[in-house]
Q: What sequence folds into this?
């Protein structure tokens, strides 16, 4: 394989990149699951972030703090990666914790942020975030909730609340 060849050539960074990219492709092509565990989604996110850190170097930073009790929460496949991709150039922080209202995921960047009026203006001009609308709809269908909060000059926060598998109520 390419990863083995990179190992023989002592190109460890290249080998690591190939393995992470292969993991990303496998996840993308796995048609068996439209819903995955948070643990599986976070594994994809770690591979994605590692690739981006290699790409951007010290220009981005990423922190992940995950409550292990949320690992079995289910969410639609490819929920977190597009949100992180939207934030990646700003540097971000991701927190997952079990809270009274459910398994709460928070992704925050320290970018320029935006105002509600700017968001409404963009929507009126036909510049809508189809990706975020898609994520919000898929999370709602799975019984969760999705909110975006932003403040000009301070950044943007995406908040997701998920239901635990097999429970009638949110965590």
A:
């Amino acid at each position: 394989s390419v990863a083995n060849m990179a190992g023989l050539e002592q190109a460890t960074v290249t080998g690591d990149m190939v393995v992470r990219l292969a993991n990303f492709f496998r996840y993308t092509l796995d048609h068996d699951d439209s819903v995955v565990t948070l643990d599986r989604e976070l594994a994809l996110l770690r591979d994605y972030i590692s690739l981006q850190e290699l790409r951007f170097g010290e220009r981005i930073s990423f922190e992940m703090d995950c409550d292990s009790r949320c690992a079995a929460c289910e969410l639609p496949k490819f929920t977190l990666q597009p949100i992180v991709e939207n934030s990646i150039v700003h540097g971000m922080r991701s927190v997952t914790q079990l809270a009274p209202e459910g398994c709460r995921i928070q992704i925050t960047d320290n970018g320029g942020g935006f105002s509600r009026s700017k968001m409404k203006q963009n929507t009126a001009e036909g510049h809508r975030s189809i990706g975020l609308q898609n994520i919000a709809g898929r999370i709602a269908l799975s019984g969760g909730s999705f909110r975006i909060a932003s403040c000009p000059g301070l950044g943007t926060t995406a908040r997701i609340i998920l239901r635990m598998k097999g429970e009638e109520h949110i965590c």
Remarks:
- The first strand starts at residue 35 and ends at 37.
- The two ends are 43 Å apart (CA to CA).
- The mean pLDDT is 81.
- The helical segments are 2-8, 12-29, 38-56, 80-87, 116-124, 130-141.
